[in-house]
Structure prediction request, 155 residues.
Amino acid sequence: MRQVVFLLTLLCLLISSGGCKAIASLTSIKNPTAKVTAVELAEQSAQGAVVRVTVQIENTNGVALPIITNQYTFVVAGMKPFVFLDKPKRTLPGRRMQTLELVAAFDTGGKDVTGAAYRVSGKLEYQPPGQIRRIMTDSGIPLPSVSYAASGKIP
Prediction:
């Protein structure tokens, strides 16, 4: 039933607002790119460690794209993973790069993590412009997303 209501609403919207142009603008939005550019050990104690991860995001579109969620995982070999879901109040400006700094804190069990193998991965969901996308989001159709990942040894 929910899908029928969604399709009828979408059809009415398309007919009343020059629908082809609205669909064309929705499909012309390119995914931003995201890459991990740095991982550093910010703090370490007998109880745990804090790691900072820097992610560079580039939006090549001419329109701003609000970030809705950022979910990331930081795993150090042999330790419990750090998993975090963030809902940043941040927008990727059009035709610009932006740096996102993530923090991961975890229990080390008293072990030194310097030189330990790590893996970080994440997914940013963003909101494309336009009324059609808002209707799709309200109807439960997933937002587009961009992923990032890196691995190495903690410096």
